[in-house]
Amino acid sequence: MSDVHASLPARPVDPAAFTDESLYAATRLPVELASTLLPDAYTTPEFFALEREKVFATGWVAVGCTADVARPGDCVVVEVAGRSVIVTRDREGALRAFHNVCRHRATTLLTADARHVGRGGRIRCPYHAWAYDLDGACLGTPLFEGSDVPAGQEPVFDTAPARAFDRADHGLLPVAVESWGFLVFVSLEPEPGPLSAQLGDLPRRLAGYRLEGWLPQRRGRYDVAANHKLVGENFMEYYHLPWVHPELSQVSRFSDHYRWQGSGMYTGMCTTPVSRNSDAGGWDGLNPVHGLAGRDADSGRFVWLFPSTALVVLPNHAFVLFAQPVAPNRTVETTVLLAHPDSLDHPDREAGLDRLEKFWDLVNRQDVEIVERVQQGLANPAYRGGRMCFRFEEPLHRFQNMVVDRMVGLRRVPAGDPAAMARMFPDP
Ligand code: FES
Ligand SMILES: [Fe+2]
Q1: Among 176, 191, 226, which residue terminates a domain?
Q2: Considering its fold, how many domains does the chain have in total?
Q3: What residues does ligand 1 touch, defined as CB less than 6 Å away?
Q4: Ligand 1 mutation target, pool 99, 107, 122, most atoms within 8 A of CB
Q5: What tens digit of pLDDT does each residue of 90-142 get?
Q6: Nearest CA among 249, 312, 254 for reference residue 281
Q7: Domain range for residue 113?
Q8: Once rounded to an integer, what is the mean pLDDT over residues 360-381?
């Protein structure tokens, strides 16, 4: 019998090979035969740096919620591929995003906690007070080319030497921004394809929930001592449910899970029916969104948006987790619990939200603990990769192959599941 483990690349892998297709041969096999992605992809600074450019700086990344930039001048400061980005809304109501960098000498314009740009709807640099409009236009460069010169001092601040300077050339550096449902996405590519091409059939699958109207209700933050891909891979399989989540397993039964993936840069699974309350908690306490039809009315949708966002949609609430890579072995998770106004029109809404928040916090802490243990194991160079359990881990295979595609410079969107693959257990 051949030793499959011995045939996997020995560690450490030469980082120069991280962009070679041949390095990933075991992950490229059909899922029934495949091994997991190279462990060095989770542990080395070289892979992390390459992945930042080839995955996170290439394509759309979900960064926040539309409700946080609902009005002109609202803003959030987010990080994508290590770059700080301002997302705001201009006076015409259009979403805008810019690199958070002053065009003068590069000062960071807004701090991470900024929620609204400065007075008068201007983004003003704290260093020499260059000011920018919500559409990015440079509005003023004090004492440089004529603006803000005190009356009577014009001769002192003669602008003649400011030759060949045109404010119009010094607007903020733009970043592509789009939204879908309640999520805002940015792309660092200069000319990205439309977000819809990345999302594939997902907007159609989730259309019944009218996600564009959902509002953030509770937020959390978790510092995780694990690579961001482990957070995603853990989210996209239900294989671990009985052992890691005894409580969730009561609410959302193992055998009620099935795959739910069309063409698009995402992985998906569902539970139908998503059970209601049990001793361990449950989903009651908020109304379902009005007008949900068919399976939308009694399912939980669990979608991982490539590259780094978990989206859970139930009939009466949603849970989102943004996984921000910080280091090969460190990820910051920002979580948001959202609900539609239909769901919030309930006398016990606060108690219902409290219960949901507590429940998701419990589930997430269980997940964090287990992925940190995976990270610890991956650091051991004796381990070269493991066999995927094809029954349950096809979404990981799909995801890891999306990562490999980007690392080797391939741009393509995975096809959907054949219908016959979707359901493991008999259809309810
Ligand atoms: S660096 Fe921003 S105004 Fe000088
Ligand atoms: Fe889990």
Answers
A1: 176
A2: 2
A3: 102, 104-105, 107, 125, 127-128, 130
A4: 107
A5: 999 999 999 999 999 999 999 999 999 987 889 999 999 999 999 999 998 88
A6: 249
A7: 61-176
A8: 97
